[in-house]
Amino acid sequence: MTQSNNPASDVSNNDVIITIKDLNKWFGDFHVLKDINLEVRKQEKIVICGPSGSGKSTLIRCINRLEEHQMGQIIVDGVELSNNLKNIEKIRTEVGMVFQHFNLFPHLTILENLTLGPVWVRKTPKKEAEETAMFYLEKVKIAEQAKKYPGQLSGGQQQRVAIARSLCMKPKVMLFDEPTSALDPEMVKEVLDVMIQLSDEGMTMIVVSHEMGFAKTVAQRVMLMDDGMILEENNPVDFFENPQHERTQFFLSQILH
Amino acid sequence: MAIIAIDKEKIARIKPPVIKTGVIGWLKENLFNGVINSLLTIIIFLFMVKFVPPFIKWAFVDSVWFSTSQVCKECEGACWSAITKNFRFMIFGIYPYELHWRPFVSMLSLFTLLYFTYYRKYWSKTLLYAWLAGLVAMAVLMKGGIFGLTPVPTEMWGGLPLTLLLSIFGLTAAYPLGVILALGRDSKLPGIRYMCVTYIELIRGVPLISLLFMASIIFPLFLPEGVTINKILRAQAAIIFFTAAYIAEVVRGGLQGMNKGQYEAADALGLNYYQTMRLIILPQALKIVIPPTVSVLVSAFKDTSLVVIISLYDLLFAAKTVIQKPQWNGFSTEVYIFVAILYFLGCFSMSNFSRKLEEELDTDKRS
Q1: How many Å lie between the alpha carbon of B295 and the closest alpha carbon of chain A?
Q2: Most buried of A86, B62, B185, B190, CB within 10 angstroms?
Q3: What domains can be seen in chain B, in order of their start residue?
């Protein structure tokens, strides 16, 4: 593995926010994550790519305990993930997640989708939560849709709402699980633009994605996962232009046709 | 490659085709579009020619409405007098005649409350309090014993008020209990899960009649001497427990239909189990299962007539009593038609309400 030394890096402090040590996970007999080690610093942006079934989604889903790991350690912002429900809840409030299929709540309006977490989890007063929600809706350029229901929005709009919903919780880290894979090609850019803007504002981001342009623009480190392992990690320029591992070379040749 | 020429004027000019159908066209389209449909149309038409006019003649032309039973016996048509002459008995059963205004006022306030509940715009805390106050007032009116009202023992309650009482309380209590059982059946804790499974399977495995018998005959044997629990209450409990088991399975179906992503999104926001269920999962799952839920509730409403077997005098029993009177013997058709209409009105309003609710809760439609 090559050490990241991207000169364009805007990582000004080296505080580690996520530590993953010797992480192992099985689905039944299937060893899906094999001895993963990863440190993420504050404000760092990491893009993980790899073939389907390589464990990349499972890895980021372990970080907010949507999946339970069986061996190893995950420490987020000084709190270790274990069976301790308090810790899980604490970490989940600090870590936002954006899903491939948006997973907005279809029975609630856009505004209600955004205020739900702050009001019920953070116990923010409703009025304040609504102000915050409108602030983030403006940010993702969708404020005029606040009173509509998710089913009335396009895929790209829904995904932007989903991002805003996570931001309303004021998370320290954002996880993106293939945020553009379920979108029509025309709508990919509007979502990526929001993510780039978020990155510029200094959010710590771990993104599972095959969007090369995005990775080149924002990532400090790009990783390739296959068969439950991180096989290669590098700054985006070297990762895409000069891949070392033959698996990476093959993978890139497959997606850059 | 070239840009394709578009005739914008033409596009603006063309209109959607108007479907022209006269009476003949409509008939052809809807009644005679094919051999089988034509055949069915003719059969149904002949059937109606044969049976509808005689029925109208019997029910409306030759019928008597406010006569004595003697006149009825000599008349060809329907004897609706069997109902009009026994109306108060059929509705109120053996409740003391001069006190009929009390169940009447109770039912009136019940219908008022139901009317406001029908429209979602009236749903509020006030309505909830009105329900609570209304139910207490109804109980006081029916039972008496305070405010100078003559006490009426529950053994004398009967007819429509009893049917409504058993249904309204039965359904409103069974629904939340069913939801809790459904959640319990999906619980991660094996103790709770097995308890709920056992309950649901046991209750669903026996007919309501046997539960009613158990409630009325076997259950009191286990009570210490001197302790009695009101018979209506016991029947009520049996109906609640029975209906809840069916509701539970319907709701479980809705829970299983939920997308896993909804749970994950709720988890990712940090909502706990109760918040997830209450705010995210149940509102959606319960909405999906409105149609089967209403089926369960409608059949529970009709099943309240089974309380007859433990000698509670509900609407159907009061009707039967009328037919058994010597002078009205033989007019069962009219009496049963009347009872059927009342039951139908109840069931139809329920399904109507559910359809309206479904439409109003539909958030998928584009506006």
Answers
A1: 23
A2: B185
A3: 81-96+152-366 (1.10.3720.10)
